[in-house]
């Protein structure tokens, strides 16, 4: 019982899909009653005696047309082959089928099956009374006009509604993505600011700390001067710590960025790109010498080595090399103050190798006698930023301790970026100092890809509608021409009737008579005066309608016996 109940519930949900809101219920019930009310009188006028079953069936099929559009269409077409009561329903189910059947094959098959069954049952019902070709022609014209044309209009409305909904959803998506892009641009700007503050200001503060540390142990200074220098050193250390905290906050808030080019173009060539001591340096490979001079001025022995033939380097790769040396010098000043530093630039055949090496610090510098060494401030963001910069230009960064307890930082930077177009995009934006959303891989999400071209549903439906109307018009012309031709083939001219004499051989008389049409002549059988006994009579309409009243036909009759014409009659019958 549970299986039967579940099957019944599923069948009901399929045939009557929801949600059944009050307005929908009222509309469906009123529509079913209206269709049933139209079906009953039409069947009464047709004289089939099936008015009540047709009305009930029409109402039920109207209700299930939403859930079972193909089934309702075929059943309505079959019922239309027996009588005209379901013709109003045929318009409704045609509309619903065109709007609800998505697959073109199923839609075409349903309409073809409906017309075939409608024609078949119409031929079976009127067999012997109406020529089959007339039934086929009129059923096709009526089917195209009452079912196919509403289906095309319904399909156009459904496709237009679907297209409008899709465009509305896409517009809403683009609005959301625009807000996301603006938010990501702000995050990228935060990341850029954090990277610049870390690379430039951190380097300068490290140099200040080294300078003040050297002055603090200078024996030529007085105690008061040493105290002032110590305060300056502590202030530099505190400023560096606060800088690290700010950079950490900005960097943490930027971690929500999707995989992309990382820091904006200004991060490699904007604020602080060329900042050395006293503003020396212009960024890029040419600015590395200024960084070395700044460190030497702070009392740190720094040597700069160049090897290989100098090759042109992309601007983004040059800025990355500058930042690598800057970060390495900063770390060396903080973690190994006073240790000699070696900066090497090697121009390999396919890439520039930047290497900065320093041994361990020989002894603590900048500590007052009996004082404690200041804690080294480190935010842990420098190497991460360097690796990201190198990745953007198609290179790599290696950092790690050396055998002598020192430290080595090396970067391999190709002469051309991993993607020339991307590198050019980064370089172009470096002058503005702002984030370039166009440099995102694949373009801006939701904006770079052109919207898919959609063919307007009006085109196909309009072509189909024109084709249907042309077919209906052609069938109408064909039907009228056939009707006129059948009427002419069933009518005998008065001159032929008058010229035919009794006793004329039957063969000669029949040569002058038309072929006739059952559609016009089947009601004339048995009419007129009593024919001669044993005679074979044929009846035709006459073109001599003079004196006939409304609702009467002029008829001529020719009777043959023993191969000759024995009688001819001209009379009138009521239609």
Outline of the structure:
This protein has 575 residues and is an alpha+beta fold.
Structure description:
With 575 residues, the protein is an alpha+beta fold. It is built from 17 helices and 9 strands. The strands form 2 sheets. Strands 1-2-3-5-4 form a 5-stranded mixed β-sheet. It has a 4-stranded mixed β-sheet with strand order 6-7-8-9. Mean pLDDT is 77; it is low at 256-281, 365-373 and 418-451.
Write the layout of secondary structure elements.
Blueprint: H1 2-15, H2 22-46, H3 51-64, H4 69-82, H5 87-100, H6 104-125, H7 132-216, H8 223-253, H9 266-269, H10 288-297, E1 302-307, H11 315-335, E2 341-347, E3 351-358, H12 382-392, E4 396-401, E5 407-414, H13 420-429, H14 457-489, E6 491-492, H15 494-499, H16 506-512, H17 518-521, E7 536-542, E8 552-561, E9 564-574
Parallel strand pairs: 1-2, 6-7
Antiparallel strand pairs: 2-3, 3-5, 4-5, 7-8, 8-9
Helix pairs in contact: 2-3, 3-4, 4-5, 4-6, 5-7, 6-7, 7-8, 7-11, 7-14, 10-11, 11-12
For the structure shown, list the relevant keywords:
single chain, 575 residues, alpha+beta, five-stranded mixed beta sheet, four-stranded mixed beta sheet, 17 helices
The strand line-up of the biggest sheet is 1-2-3-5-4
What class, by secondary structure content? alpha+beta
**Beta-strand share of residues:** 5-15%
Q: Could you say which overall geometry the principal axes of the C-alpha atoms support?
A: rod-shaped
Q: Which value, in Å, is the CA radius of gyration?
A: 49 Å
Q: How many H/I helices?
A: 17
* Portion of residues within helices: 55-70%
- The total beta strand count reads 9
Q: Distance between the terminal alpha carbons, to the nearest Å? A: 61 Å
Arithmetic mean of pLDDT: 77
